[in-house]
Amino acid sequence: MFNKGLLLACALALLSACDSSTSGKPAPVEKTVAPAPAETPAPKREDPAVLAKRYEGRELTVLDVSEVQLDGAATLSISFSAPLDAKQDFATKVHLVDTVKGKLDGAWELSDNQMELRLRHLEPQRKLVLTVDKGLLAVNGKQLDSESITRLETRDMQPTIGFASRGSLLPTRLAEGLPVIALNVDKVDVEFFRVKPDMLSTFLANWGRNSSLYYYQSKETLDMAELVYSGRFDLNPARNTRETVLLPIAGIKPLQAPGVYLAVMRASGTYDYSQPATLFTLSDIGVSAHRYRDRIDVFAQALEGGKALSGVNLEIHDEKGKLLAQATSDGKGHAQLPITPKADTLIATQGVHTTLLRLNTAALDLAEFDITGPQANPLQFFIFGPRDLYRPGETVLLNGLLRDQDGKPVKAQPVSVEVRRPDEQVSRKFVWEADSNGLYQYQLQLATEAPTGRWQLLLDLGGGRKQVYEFLVEDFLPERLALELKGSNTPLSPDEDARIQVNGRYLYGAPAAGNRLSGQAYVRPLREAVPALPGYQFGSVTETDLNQDLELDEVTLDQAGKAVVDIESRWAEARSPLQLTVQASLQESGGRPITRRLEQPIWPAERLPGLRGLFEGEETDSDGPVEFEFLVADRDGNKLAADALKVRLVRERRDYYWNYSQSDGWSYAYNEKFLTQNEETISVKAGSTAKLSFQVEWGPYRVEVEDPQTGLVSSERFWAGYRAQDNAEGGAVRPDQVKLALDKPSYTDGATAKVTVTPPAAGSGYLMIGSSDGPLWWQEIDVPAEGKTFDVQLDKAWARHDLYISALVIRPGERKANATPKRAVGVLHLPLDRAERKLALSLQAPEKNAPETAFDSESKGRQRRWQCAQAGACVVVGGGRGHPQHHRFQNPRPVRQPVRAQGLWCRSTGHLRPVDRGRPRPPGQPGVRW
């Protein structure tokens, strides 16, 4: 099966090279502790008067003292409850002392939000004492009312060295250096090997995703390459600071020839079992490719400017280097090549420039985009029946409609069907013929010894694609028992045992006397505890150990078919509402059970505080006010009066830091802190709610509301930052994502769609409409940073429901701006309007009817509620109440299945990932998704 994705491999990361081996002096290197990317500028400080008004009345306290990493340096961070007055002299109010060396000198930095003080370049493994004097001034005029003293010990820092990326493509005109991440390592020795062209595919297959060259593999690996350059480089990073430095290669002639290079590095004077290593190549060709079932569509663009490149020679090789296919890009930079499972590497060349793309690597992850759905086919076979569960010996009733990829009727044709048993053996084959109305009907007789499990019908609709319909075969009997479970009409208290009343009887009326009852009980948090108040959250998200699974003792029903099941409370300490779910199974005399469920709420008090965020989903835009609504409610949904509710905004901060090991390369860890950034007291009147707004920045938060009358706390988490759940819901633009938006929810055939493309930075690229069978339309685009709207005329021939708009925008590199080319991708489904096909059916039939007797029914159909439907056939199917799945069987929906959004089925690969100057960032930083 093809993986989902978009084969978008734009090799755009900045990697660099090295120094002259003939020189006696180590080559100088360029330090690149890169500033924040242009697309995520640091926020400016707000007007002090605005801040003073926003935080009016808030007391100033020290919330937290931690060691964090800031731009690679160990930094002391002091968090406060309110913004500080930036005009005061912090050195006279804040003192840091080393217990061995005495007072530490350094400049205190105030963060942009003015709520953190920072001191960089801490020494490792030192015991420190921090003192914040009384009288430190906040922007709102409040002062620290008492001295704060904190003791801490800084982390250890071992010297480390490693490449910033596993592999990269260097734009030749911007190739300044190969990025290396260094910590307390002054000099390195680097050797550069050029991979032999005839060994390229084999080398790549053997190398994989390695980030180090191990001693045991060095001979085999280096036999496929030749040493072209070696040298020593002075790094000289700042002390105790993890810095990214560039090893210069721009002026080294042996490294300017086109090809693939392997760089192997070691700290000077050291010899380890493994050495950091990375691949890189030099080229100005950027390649994006869309791989489909039997072909690959390739688009070639210039890394400098993003314009389409014509005349690029494209070759596909297998893992042994054998040429499988060849083509040349046209005037739009496009070429189409056949592809087979043996395809391993795509090599793009133009003049002296070479770019390679491995086709067998992991697909580009497009999980942020909604591209899921069933596989699209030119023909669709819609199958329906009264149920999907049968017994051995029964007859499976099948009905079918043959439709095209737009759900329209097509000329009936014979359909070859293969029936497969659960063990994948073919049970039978038959050719399914339609009647004069185009309706396919078939009765599949199951043998009495038919194996149980999931059966399949494989329908051959041509083109080498088969559609699958599944049904279950189980050895069951129609239900003969009725089981009723009854709990308390009101919520239980946590320390109260649950008492469940059981009533069992046979469907013909007799009590289920002497039948055995077994079951399980499940306890889970009940977040939406008041059905009359949808959206409001109750209970604390930080309360742990609330989930419980219990096995109930078996009981026997009395002569009246009744019993009582007592469940002892094991959740007496719970401070949040819970849901007790009882699942009971009543067994017939032969041992066959029927199962029913009962849900019993548990409340820790007669009233609960509740809250809801006034935004969509669990994420909101960062750097903006976030509004919540608060109330106190009873079980009936009545909004009660409450005084002095305590509301808190808690920042769930994670301080990330990097570690390096020879086996795993760079990895990260974090320390987690919960910082109460705001606390207010509110009151609500009976029948109403209260609202509060909070100023937030990028990252995770928790809002809590506490009712002082009961001491109960309810809370809700949210993330301030990029909206990831949809490409066009108005969220912020991510640094690696193009935001796409449509002007309508769906489009009729031949309509014009207005597509708004908003990139993270201005650039060039292309806008494309494609399907699982390949691209249908595309054009080159130039997009400013603020975005641009493009008119796309929809062809009437595009009557299918796997249409997706995709955009690829390349930010051109600029040597003066110290910025490398960087690509951003966007994908969005293009829905077609088929509402006029919806038919509203009404069915009139008697409520009851004797078994095995006929009855009359009348059905009527209307389109768009005012237009009577044309004459047509109506098929009515029904299922018996005794069927064990009658309450779970999902009725098929013919109005949706043929025209619903279908998945984008392409395979996505990429060999060299674009990074911002090769510098890794932990997932706690804005703009990076891990």
Automatic annotation (TrEMBL):
Biased segments, Pro residues type: 921-930
Disordered: region residues: 23-46, 910-930
Entry annotated with the keyword 4Fe-4S: no
Domain Alpha-2-macroglobulin bait region per the UniProt entry, residue ranges: 738-864
Keywords associated with the record: Lipoprotein, Signal
Any one Gene Ontology molecular-function term assigned to this protein's record: endopeptidase inhibitor activity
Keyword presence, Acyltransferase: no
InterPro entries: A2M_bMG2, A2M_N_BRD, A2MG_MG1, Alpha_2_Macroglob_MG3, Bact_A2M_MG5, Bact_A2M_MG6, MG2, YfhM-like
Signal peptide: 1-21
A Pfam family matched in the record: A2M_BRD
This protein's name: Lipoprotein yfhM
Gene: yfhM
